[in-house]
Amino acid sequence: MSEYEIGVIPGDGTGPEVTAEAVKALRAAAEVGGLKVRLAEYDLGGERYLRNGELVPDSVLSELKGMKAILLGAIGHPGVKPGILEQGILLKLRFALDLYINLRPVVLYPGVYTPLRDKGPDDIDFVVIRENTEGLYTGSGGFLKKGTPDEIAVQESINTRKGIERCVRYAYEYCRKRNRRKKLTLCGKTNVLTYAFDLWERVFYDVGREFPDIQTDYAHVDATCMWMIKNPEYFDVIVTDNMFGDIITDLGAMIQGGMGIAAGGNIRPGVTGFFEPIGGSAPKYTGQNKINPLAAICSAQMLLEFLGEEKAASRILAAVKKALQNDIRSLDAGRMGLGTREIGDLVAGYIRKC
Ligand code: IPM
Ligand code: MN
Predict the structure, then answer these.
(1) Among the atoms of ligand 1, which is closest to the Cα of residue 102?
(2) Domain final position from 209, 239, 256
């Protein structure tokens, strides 16, 4: 029997509510599939920071490093100045655990409303692979003459050949394994960012020679946004840098039905990763049983896939699809026709029946 040690970080706001439902799904899928999962919970987030100033203590970090995978709810607290928790927890984990891939599927499930008129599940089915440890996110740069009329702010985009290469190679492999249209699109800005994306482009085509079965394709980031709305069926797998990936995946979340369904993984392939609903902590809904847990449940599905437990993962997916088609009226908080816990119970029930 396979055995996994999984870290759980429920986090802030509605994070704990949705995480509880993701854990329900995970346990149900594990039970049916004969897997043993041991969960270790960590209270990281705004509350802890306000209580004693701690973000990710070293002892917690080293325990997390030993986990096979981590489930994360949401980080973000209205009482904490913007930037502190993001940098001190989310980015800290990405960098310290070297989670160099941010994997964000953009898939419209049957029964889900998309704001794109005339587009359906056959059209909206692609994956964004975002480089997750470099680019504009490294914190490289600084101020000169700060606070004076002559001040200068520099924020540098760091792009290493090794960093790009490992990300791009993962994307080719992912595209091959996904086996859908076998098309990998590099999303960049080669016409303006003539150093960073020159390197990206060269590495992209160099590595591509090892994958003759994968069709290569390029789109500028602005055009990518346009195509995502106009012709989303154009895409299969998109690989891009950290900042562009951040932006286009919010757009992606909207066309797949919103933050109630969008999940993602921060991954160090073969080692560890944390999986999360990509929406925030939605503090105004805290404790109301109104927020949609499906994104969190889908992150549990991604976690199982990452562990190589494809069967258990697909059981969760089938259950989510069933709930979407039969039971859930809307993905928006408060308009679902069911509460957070009820959706969690429903999905867990379907997992057991599947
Ligand atoms: C995301 C978020 C983070 C990012 C923030 C909270 C630092 O927007 O995961 O997409 O920019 O990466
Ligand atoms: Mn983002």
Answers:
(1) 9
(2) 256
